[in-house]
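Write out the 3D structure for:
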Amino acid sequence: MSRPANPVTVPLADYSPQHFLLAVVDGVATVTLNRPERKNPLTFESYRELTDFFRACAFDDAVKSIVVTGAGGNFSSGGDVFEIIGPLVKMDTRGLTAFTRMTGDLVKAMRACPQPIVAAIEGICAGAGAIIAMASDMRLAASGAEVAFLFNKVGLGGCDMGACAILPRIIGQSRASELLYTGRFMTAEEGERWGFFSRIVTSEQVLPQAQLLAKQVAEGPTFGNTMTKRMLAMEWAMSVEEAIEAEAVAQALCMTTADFERAFEAFANKVKPVFRGD
């Protein structure tokens, strides 16, 4: 379980990951899980490299938003059965705990990443793949997409990588409980109805629509978007009174940015504001 050979030490536009594809266009970074012959499973190495990538996003002002998708008509089948689950059955408690903390670090990195993340989900989205979708800020589904939190199917609990904390907040306690206790697949239609997906589009349109949504986000005020993501996460643990006070401070900070002044000037001149992220 060694770390990837090329940790992110360069601008993301110049970064060449070993375990996924990366393209940065107009401020939108598109991450593509790229093992289509196996429905894009994750390995020890890809977990770590994805975590390193999302952590590096905090230091790259050129990236304004992120899209995560999978190659070959599927999002991700989760942890590779032979490259991950096989070795796990031979580990002791210390090694297993190191592994589960490492996988949880990916979700922590996604949630701490200041850029909003859009998941474009097609085909199978299962196990750790479902967790990556869950940890994203927005999710679009292709018709026919299926999502399953499969952990109990391999003899484990549904409490993996933050699922018991995050999933109920997205779709509600009862629906999350059903998925986590049964491990069954949630259809795209169910996911849209339950609020897991923002909308359903065709397979041909799911990635372009996700990239368009990410581009719309990227064209907005960078600091303001970062603050929105921070508040959406922090206010889970706040009372309404605490949240109102936190938002007062956060919004006051947003008002100190040049983008806020640009928006006023654009409104006064009846033109669309062009935000620069400062």
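The mean pLDDT is 93.
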